Amino acid sequence: MTDPVRKSRVFSGIQPSGLLPLGNYLGAIRQWLGTQADHENYFCIVDLHAVTIYQQPEMLRRKTLEVAAMYLAAGVDPRLSTIFVQSHVRAHAEGSWLLTCVTPVGWLERMTQYKAKAGQRTSVGAGLLVYPVLQAADIVLYDANEVPVGEDQKQHVELAQDIAQRFNHLYGETFVIPQAVIPASGARILALNDPGRKMSKSEAHQRGHAVCLTDDADEIRNAIQRAVTDLGREIVFSQQPEKAGVNNLLEIYELLTGRPRPEIEAHFEGRGYGEFKQEVAEVVIEALRPIRERYRELTGEPDELKRILEVGAENAAAIAEPKLAEMKQKMGFLASPRYRVK
Ligand code: AMP
Ligand code: TRP
User: Fold this and answer.
1) Is there a contact between 341 and 321 (Cβ–Cβ < 8 Å)?
2) pTM for the complete prediction?
3) Could you tell me which of 230, 249, 250 has the C-alpha nearest to residue 241?
4) How far is the CA of 28 from the centre of ligand 2 (A)?
């Protein structure tokens, strides 16, 4: 139930399955920074989601700490927001099972991300199908009001609404119904080498696909200079499919400079694509420089990172565990002294 005096709660997460590309920053993290001061924020490193696709164990451990460092480097402040690792709070896995039992398979088979990922494989892990139920558990265990994500996660948040509603209907009012918060610009940053597709973490290592938050100036310049555009010469914001590459670079420029669109179009009027890309690259380099430097410092202090994650897990469990206990009580599970909520 929503407590009228409590601050609006925000929950979001990123999988520790690779280097973070600019898409993650512009679509998700940048939004998180805006709600830090006046909302109650939970930003999770969703490692249980990452293992729906095989992860090399040592790499998973490393990337989990790297993504934590990236949250901090990008400006998530542990004094204002709870930063934690999903597998450190057991309620996520357990709550997910309970919600799996109220979710029709048909709802899961309809998910476009499942269809796309399953379609590429000959054998599909069951985790890939129930992935959005775990995401729903993440969100509803905190009674999150807002879920700031990129466009590709809208369908998953809508599913979380349906699952929460169904649970409420079956067992009585338990969960707040969450809302996705999708940015007006930057909700779908496109691959630099193929503006027909989104920029994605799983392909970020491919030459020319993405700029990653850890890239140095030369890597950024190279990727942006090679970005696919079109045969025209107009540097304008446009939803025309052939202008997707130019539009993508313009959105990146807009988000990182904060300049209004008409001013940006006037600024580039009559200029060539080469010069345009050079300027976009410089803006990206300058925006990422402090993030990259701070990231380097933080990854040199793994004990400090682990300490922040430990505090985060304690804070998160203090919300998620009583919520899980409420779910279990409402569903009719026999209480046990072995399972006491702190
Ligand atoms: P993931 O990399 O799938 O863990 O996504 C983490 C967050 O970044 C989610 O909120 C996504 O919606 C967002 N995101 C991922 N890729 C992009 C992209 N290309 N453009 C905008 N947002 C994105
Ligand atoms: N599935 C999301 C993605 O791949 C990550 C995620 C997991 C998430 N749990 C979440 C996002 C809860 C928002 C809220 O991008």
Assistant:
1) yes
2) 0.96
3) 230
4) 10
What's the CA gap between 311 and 7, in Å, rounded?
20
Terminal-to-terminal C-alpha distance of the chain: 21
Nearest ligand to the C-alpha atom of residue 31: 1
Find the 313 Cα to ligand 1 centroid distance in Å. Answer: 23
CA of 192 to the centre of ligand 1 (A): 15
Q: What angle do CA 57, 60, 61 make, to 5 degrees?
A: 90
Residue 93 has pLDDT above 80, yes or no: yes
Q: For ligand 1, atom 1, name the residue with the nearest CA.
A: 14
- CATH, domain range 9-182+301-331: 3.40.50.620
Q: Is 200 in the pocket of ligand 2 (CB under 6 A)?
A: no
Can you tell me the distance from the alpha carbon of 212 to that of 190, in angstroms, rounded to the nearest whole number?
13
DSSP state letters, 280-306: HHHHHHHHHHHHHHHHHHHHT-HHHHH
Q: Which two tokens stand for residue 44?
A: 């999770």
CATH 3.40.50.620 location in the chain: 9-182+301-331
Supply 60's token pair: 């998973």
Q: Give the pLDDT confidence of 128-159 residue by residue, as tens digits.
A: 999 999 999 999 999 999 999 999 999 999 99
